[in-house]
Amino acid sequence: MEQLLHYVWKHKMLPLTPLATTDGREVEVIDPGLHNRNAGPDFFNAKVRIGGTLWVGNVELHLRSADWYAHGHDRDPHYNNVVLHVVSQADAEVLTEDGKYLPQMELQVPLQVKEHYEELLHADRYPPCYKVVGQLSSLLVHSWMAALQTERLEQKTQAIARRAELAQGSWEDAFFQTLARNYGFGINGEAFEQWAQGIPLNAVGKHRDDLFQVEAFFMGQAGLLTPGSIPQRHRDDALQEGYFTRLRNEYLYLQHKFQLQPMDYAAWRFLRLRPQNFPHIRIAQMATLYHERRLGLSTLLECQSVEQLRQLMATHVTPYWETHYGFGAESAKSGKWLSKASADLLIINTAIPMLFAVGRHRHNEDLCDRAFDLLEQMKAERNHIITMWQECGLPVKTAGDSQALIQLKREYCDRKECLRCRFGYEYLRIK
Predict the structure, then answer these.
(1) Is 11 in a helix, a strand, or coil?
(2) Secondary structure of residue 27 in the 3-state scheme
(3) How many CB atoms lie within 10 A of CB 431?
(4) Coil vs helix vs strand at 159
């Protein structure tokens, strides 16, 4: 509840009755100050008039006065410049480290705000603020969605930068790993990233002109060229067909040449996967992309339009995988091209974030602007999160909109961070 008290102070949701300190001096809140989410007083550079005297300094908030001592503020010189202690219940006088008694003011959370906050926390319907969503102004919605969209790209940028750092500063490796993770399409995302981290691109690059060797390299590092990785019901067929054995022999040569260490095939998940989503198919598609030299960062940065990005991501499989979804596991003949829907997801979750991340890294605003423009050119994703917001009356037209709402769901709604959300703010204000 202290978090809600902070919220009321920050947004000046103050009672209409005059405010006063516990010793009877009138209080006027001119500026609540800057909310501090790190160590130190809760609000910096607040402006308050106490008993006719203007004070500029910091403000600390607690549910009870005694919390000042429980948190050790009386022994911390960083709290010596606090000018007002705001509490729900003043149950003790408070003293700073340099021996000053602080003025205190009791502040109650308005009943209406408290009730609406409880509704948001305990609502059994998503989104909990559905009552107000359809009534919000287009300006408010647009500004909040734009902020969320940027926040999501910044979050993805941080993940990409971490990959580059772990790869000794190689943004090529970071691109490959980011694309691989998204090739897992959620279910196998972690396994694909682990696999990509085990692919030494400098080594496989020496055999890039030979698709069979690239596929052997990729499949072997995925742990899929060990006999134990093939289900018992398909093992005999896989060995009789010969393709598995040929790939395995090629990989054993490459493994010895480059001192490779494959990952454990048990990391891959197969339950309830459609055949086209099996790791074998996705890895074969990535092998083709790599062989055709379309997995380069410079190639990505040259793309100016969504259509160019779709052409970049378009891929297929080698002949064996046209009739199989696993070693020895036959399927109807198909080129197993990456679908347009899947390609668009890769563009949204890999290509565009990479443009933005590289733009941030190189201080190139043109790349960052291109990332935003591309999101606005693409249609919104279709999933249950987007559907629920649409049912509340929120217009969702572009991929920028859908990315913003995914960010809202995961970083605010799921974490019950309604007090940090502009929609939540509007809900708390309803009469």
Answers:
(1) coil
(2) strand
(3) 4
(4) helix
Token digits for 148? 């969320």
**What is the DSSP-derived secondary structure letter of residue 283?**
H
Name the residue type at position 399. Answer: A
Burial 127-151 (b: 16+ CB within 10 A, else e): bbbbbbbeebeeeebeebbeebbbb
* φ, ψ at 80 (rounded to 5°): -70, -25
> pLDDT tens digits, residue range 335-349?
788 899 999 999 999
Tokens representing 274 are: 């459609």
- Per the DSSP assignment, residues forming a β-bridge with 251 are none
In angstroms, the CA 164 to CA 196 distance is: 13
Q: Which two tokens stand for residue 406?
A: 């995914």
Q: What is the DSSP string of 81-129?
A: TEEEEEEEE--S--B-TTSPBPPEEE-PPPHHHHHHHHHHHH-SSSSTT
Cβ neighbors of 94 (< 8 A, separation 6 or more) are: 65, 68, 69, 73, 74, 85, 101, 102, 104
Band the pLDDT of 112: cuts 50, 70, 90.
confident
Mean pLDDT (whole number) for 267-281: 92
Residue 325: is it exposed, middle or buried by C-beta count within 10 angstroms (0-12/13-18/19+)?
buried
> Kind of pairing, strands 26-31 and 19-20?
antiparallel
Q: Rounded distance, CA 112 to CA 13, Å? A: 11
Ramachandran assignment for 33, one of left (phi > 0), alpha (psi -120 to 50 degrees), beta (any other): left
Helices (H), 83-137: 111-122, 130-133
Strand 82-89 and strand 104-106: pairing? parallel
pTM for this predicted structure: 0.84
2, 132, 190, 400 from 394: Cα distances, Å? 32, 10, 32, 14
